[in-house]
Amino acid sequence: MQAQRDPSAYWKMAHDPYCLEERIISDLEAIMKKDPLLEEFDVIPVTEAKNRSPVIHISHNLGIEVWCIKTVFMYCYENSFKLEPLWKKEYLRLERYTKAALLLNANITTLWNIRKKLIVNHFLDIDCDFLLTKLALSQKPKCFEALSHRRWLLQQASSSNPHWVETELSLCDRLSSRMKCNYHAWSHRQFVFSQAIKQQGFSLTLWASEYEVSDVWTKFHLSDHSGWHYRKFLLDQFRKNLDYIEQHMDVARKLLNNIPGTTTPTQLYMELLNEELQKNEDLILSFNAHETLWYYRRFLLQAGTISHAENHFLEKCCNSHKSNSKRAAATGVDGVQMRYIEHHRRWLSDFCV
Amino acid sequence: MVRLYSLAVLHRNEQGSPQLLKAAYDLSSFGFFQRSSVQEFMAFTAKILTERTNAASRQSVKQGEYMCHIYVRGDGLCCVLTADHEYPQRVAHTLLTKVLDDFAARVESSLWSEGNAACTAYSGLEASLAKYQNPREADALTKVQEELDETKIILHNTIEAVLQRGEKLDDLVSKSQGLSDASKMFYKTARKTNSCCNFG
């Protein structure tokens, strides 16, 4: 074991330790080791290769110039597959090549799986992969493979970092703001929430802070269906934990701005739904033609009870639509809103029967 | 998403060539290494559109996932707002009017043609950009400005539609002096690859 860790033995295995690819990989590796606070990784387009290292490190951001990607990636990719059968002996080099290959292209499940194997057999430190997935995601915020690897890591060692919930949630914040309708980021958020509950039991504080976060998010991202779905998920979580909330009614009322006149958790839940309906109505009336808002409304109606007020709401929409029609004619979204109103009316009549 | 990326005030002299007077950007949703190129491109687009919009008229131009709203006043002062598709168009154009009124009130018109240096003292753009990220802030404003409805806003589906006959965006990009080599390269790669992966 000791002999293999000896650097000279390690270098002897490489074809040519000083070839270009090896040097670039070493640069990448050195920066990742030196700066554990790295925030972002990106590919930098340049016109031509200059005679200097293509690896750039500025204030916790790692960049690589585009010209070398193809050769470095192919080199790492081929070597990873070549060394895979010898993984017990060659784990150091295998780790090195899979890391560089995944950094450049994070969509390869097989390579992530090789790393899983190394982690399970204690050849690789798990924190290294938290950093690697973070960097890969900073370049491709919708990369499912990296997120799935991260979920696996969390299941292996979620207790090692006491602040893992906060870390994951802030990662999700960044991913969802980087790319719109980022389904994978919101699924990850659901996973983190469920996992936290599983470990520590239902927590009203966590729930309330997430509810607040998603409130702000949905206000600014009206058509982000994944963001609205997360809000639905939170409301469902509330309903599922009514027993717990009953024992902590004081806390619940305080966290939810002390909604007056609620004594039971069920009442509190209905009150939340009503609040949401009101907010949803506001949004539909002030922003034209966002189908997601209508879907969310139907969820709210189904979760609560449909009252006759819904017909009034539709009337209101039609009226505001008429008064807006002159203005909206220029933008072309007018007909779309009308279609959503019609669709909702049909749904309502089906549902009430 | 409802989001504003940049707000720029330009001035067009009698020959029709535009000059950027002041701009504010919110690029936090872009990657660290992309920000400088994105900023250059927003300034570049603002200039292109200013050159190609008639005096005293309004346009909204779609480009990819962005929407540029532009208003050129009769006196050559002009404002360009880069937002996304979900930012309400009416609010955007009301905001343009408001920003220009504010700018004209604070900076003397004799200074406009002198360009950038003379107008640096004006600092209202950053505040407006931050405040109107939430379009509902502008609601009260829109209600007062009903006359905007009467104004016709021309809508274009791409920047190419705004260009004059025989002009091509690729050529304009490669000829531009305001864009660095890195940004031109960025433009070429962005055209080739679709950076977001599947499950769009």
Automatic annotation (TrEMBL), chain A:
InterPro entries recorded: Prenyl_trans_a (IPR002088)
Protein family according to the UniProt entry: Belongs to the protein prenyltransferase subunit alpha family.
Annotated GO MF terms: protein prenyltransferase activity
Organism superkingdom: Eukaryota
Any one cellular-component term (Gene Ontology): cytoplasm
Protein source organism: Daphnia sinensis
Name recorded for this polypeptide: Prenyltransferase-like protein
PROSITE patterns from the UniProt entry: PFTA (PS51147)
One Pfam family in the UniProt entry: PPTA
Keywords: Prenyltransferase, Repeat, Transferase
Coiled coil, from the record: none
From TrEMBL, chain B:
A Pfam family assignment: Longin
Swiss-Prot/TrEMBL keywords: Coiled coil, Lipoprotein, Membrane, Methylation, Palmitate, Prenylation
Cell location: Cytoplasmic vesicle membrane; Golgi apparatus membrane
Molecular function terms from GO: SNAP receptor activity
InterPro entries reported in the protein's UniProt record: Longin-like_dom_sf (IPR011012), Longin_dom (IPR010908), R-SNARE_YKT6 (IPR045848), V_SNARE_CC (IPR042855)
Keyword Metal-binding (UniProt): no
Membrane topology note: Lipid-anchor
Record's GO cellular component terms: cytoplasmic vesicle membrane; Golgi membrane
Gene Ontology biological process: endoplasmic reticulum to Golgi vesicle-mediated transport
Domain Longin: 9-103
Record domain V-SNARE coiled-coil homology: where: 140-200
Family: Belongs to the synaptobrevin family.
PANTHER family per the UniProt record, alphabetical: SYNAPTOBREVIN HOMOLOG YKT6 (PTHR45806)
Biological function: Vesicular soluble NSF attachment protein receptor (v-SNARE) mediating vesicle docking and fusion to a specific acceptor cellular compartment. Functions in endoplasmic reticulum to Golgi transport; as part of a SNARE complex composed of GOSR1, GOSR2 and STX5. Functions in early/recycling endosome to TGN transport; as part of a SNARE complex composed of BET1L, GOSR1 and STX5. Has a S-palmitoyl transferase activity.
Protein name from the UniProt record: EOG090X0E6P
Originating species: Daphnia sinensis
Chain's gene name: EOG090X0E6P
